[in-house]
């Protein structure tokens, strides 16, 4: 099915970014997309910046150098990542030149000679960018940039579904808890019917009465009884 | 024939789910007809992983004999779909592939449906339950049919999540349980409790004992449960 090992890695990376448990940590997801970018693309490193109004903030990076180079741009208030973020445009691989003299100097000291960026979008809004740090030509081609955008888009979609998923997961847990509780209560009714020779209505009435008088949750009492531990004070109701 | 009707049905249910309605908005008989299956059931997974059927076509129709048998034996397409999170299809339960995968189920005397499709209801990485379709004729499920079942499964999950938890709670005295969405096997769990106290074994072992008896005597589990509770059937600890 896959022609190359790389294709299989790409599919796995996309799946990994899309397949997150409810309530996952968004920061971990953003860090993972930088790691996937480094694993799949000819880049030195990657970082994530987010845009709030016109302010650009650093979020995470694949490594210390890229964290520093991203924060440098914010501190110096110059650099391709900032321009790209502020114009809300992706950045084709761009060689660091005199346009950003102070940043270019710092980047070159780390061997980084060019930078590219793709947009990190939620379905309805721009969130920020996935920045890519490059060391030598040939720099990223069209298909590489497309892959970077796919990784960023997958991340955006996963982030967008996070709330919805977390809400639904909570609801599911409540339903399952209700189901668990019901099962154990039915079992306890059966135990009482078998032990005391009473019918199901009577068994439930005694369960309720006993739970009330002991100020115990019906489910907890039922769980205890279902384990065969029938309290002695399950007196007949009047 | 019913392509338009299915589309309208799904659109209506999607809206019902958005409006907060639960599975009672969906007629199981209509859904089964439009999805070209004879039986259709939906099970919710308890925290233990056990499947509890909550909704479906009525139990005297084709399917549920096999559904119950899957729970009885702990093997089958529905059980596998819940465990793996993948759709499981048995195009012909009498063929060799099915016999190798589910040796006990396929050897059982009562497997009247010939084809089964089990679609997991997935929520992120969690499998919330399984939608199972049963067909009396063997043969593959077409891609269109699979897509239709997937579409219905997605909507059914949203309807399921709208179920008020109290629907699953013990019915209050004087209120009738809702027939459309309810714990369908309450009687079986009562019988397991009953038997556990009579034989002094755990509820889990008692449930296995009930299932073993149902299987070896080729009887519906629900009937065995009823007889145990009525003290008409006295099971011994050993099979």
Short structural description:
Chain A is α+β, with helices and mostly antiparallel strands. Chain A has two domains: 5-162, 2-Layer Sandwich (Beta-Lactamase), CATH 3.30.450; 169-226, Arc Repressor Mutant, subunit A (Orthogonal Bundle), CATH 1.10.10. Chain A is 58% helix and 16% strand.
Considering the chains and any ligands shown, give keywords for the structure.
heterodimer, A: 238 residues, alpha+beta, Beta-Lactamase, Arc Repressor Mutant, subunit A, 2 domains, five-stranded antiparallel β-sheet, 16% strand, elongated, B: 239 residues, 10 helices, 15% strand, globular, GAF (chain B), transcription (chain B), WH-like_DNA-bd_sf (chain B), ANTAR domain-containing protein (chain B)
Descriptive overview:
The complex is a heterodimer of chains A (238) and B (239). In chain A, a hairpin with a 2-residue loop joins strand 1 and strand 2. Chain A has two domains: 158 residues, GAF domain (Beta-Lactamase, 2-Layer Sandwich); 58 residues, Arc Repressor Mutant, subunit A. The mean pLDDT of chain A is 89. The longest helix of chain A has 55 residues. Helices cover 58% and strands 16% of the residues of chain A. Chain A contains eight helices and five strands, in the order ααββααβαββααα. Chain A is elongated. Chain B has a five-stranded antiparallel beta sheet with strand order 2-1-5-4-3, with helices on both faces. In chain B, helix 1 runs parallel beside helix 7, helix 3 packs across helix 9 and helix 9 packs across helix 10. The chains are: A alpha+beta (238), B alpha+beta (239). Chains A and B meet through helix 6 and helix 7 of A and helix 8 of B.
């Amino acid at each position: 099915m896959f022609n190359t090992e790389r294709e299989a890695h790409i599919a796995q990376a996309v799946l990994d970014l899309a397949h997150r448990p409810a309530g996952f940590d968004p920061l971990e997801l953003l860090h993972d997309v930088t790691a996937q970018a480094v694993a799949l693309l000819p880049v030195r490193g990657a970082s994530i910046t987010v845009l709030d109004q016109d302010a650009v903030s650093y979020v995470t990076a694949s490594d210390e150098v890229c964290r520093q180079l991203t924060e440098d741009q914010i501190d110096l208030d110059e650099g391709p990542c900032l321009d790209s973020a502020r114009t809300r445009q992706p950045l084709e691989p761009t060689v660091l030149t005199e346009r950003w003299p102070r940043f270019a100097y710092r980047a070159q000291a780390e061997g980084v000679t060019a930078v590219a960026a793709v947009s990190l979008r939620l379905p309805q809004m721009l969130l920020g960018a996935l920045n890519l740090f490059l060391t030598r030509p040939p720099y990223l081609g069209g298909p590489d940039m497309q892959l970077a955008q796919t990784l960023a888009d997958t991340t955006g979609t996963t982030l967008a579904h996070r709330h919805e998923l977390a809400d639904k997961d909570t609801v599911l847990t409540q339903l399952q808890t209700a189901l668990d509780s019901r099962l154990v209560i039915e079992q306890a009714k059966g135990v009482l019917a078998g032990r005391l020779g009473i019918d199901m209505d009577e068994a439930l009435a005694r369960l309720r009465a006993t739970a009330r008088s002991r100020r115990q949750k019906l489910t907890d009492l039922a769980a205890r009884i279902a384990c065969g531990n029938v309290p002695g004070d399950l007196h007949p109701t009047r | 024939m019913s392509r338009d009707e299915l589309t309208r049905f799904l659109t209506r249910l999607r809206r019902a789910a958005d409006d907060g309605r639960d599975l009672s908005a969906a007629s199981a008989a209509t859904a089964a007809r439009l999805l070209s299956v004879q039986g259709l059931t939906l099970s919710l997974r308890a925290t233990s992983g056990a499947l509890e059927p909550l909704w479906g076509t009525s139990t005297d129709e084709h399917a549920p004999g096999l559904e119950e048998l899957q729970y009885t034996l702990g093997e089958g397409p529905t059980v596998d779909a819940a465990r793996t999170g993948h759709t499981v299809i048995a195009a012909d339960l009498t063929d060799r592939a099915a016999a190798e995968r589910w040796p006990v189920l396929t050897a059982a005397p009562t497997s009247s449906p010939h084809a089964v499709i089990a679609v997991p209801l997935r929520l992120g990485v969690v499998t919330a339950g399984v939608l199972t379709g049963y067909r009396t004729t063997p043969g593959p499920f077409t891609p269109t049919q699979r897509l239709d079942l997937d579409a219905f499964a997605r909507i059914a999950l949203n309807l399921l999540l709208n179920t008020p938890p109290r629907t699953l709670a013990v019915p209050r005295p004087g209120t009738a349980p809702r027939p459309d969405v309810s714990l369908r096997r309450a009687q079986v769990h009562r019988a397991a409790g009953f038997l556990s106290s009579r034989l002094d074994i755990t509820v889990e072992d008692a449930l296995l004992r009930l299932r073993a008896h149902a299987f070896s005597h080729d009887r519906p589990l629900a009937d065995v449960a009823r007889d145990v509770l009525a003290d008409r059937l006295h099971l011994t600890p050993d099979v």
